[in-house]
Amino acid sequence: MFADNSFGRGSLYRSTFVGDAPDRECLADTIVDAVSW
Prior knowledge:
Elements: no helix or strand
């Protein structure tokens, strides 16, 4: 689902996702506080 994606310097704050979490490389500069996978 997250293949070949990059979230950059954005925020996924308080997001909920179904399935596996993306690789840490995709989330390097992304705010992921209160995210559930």
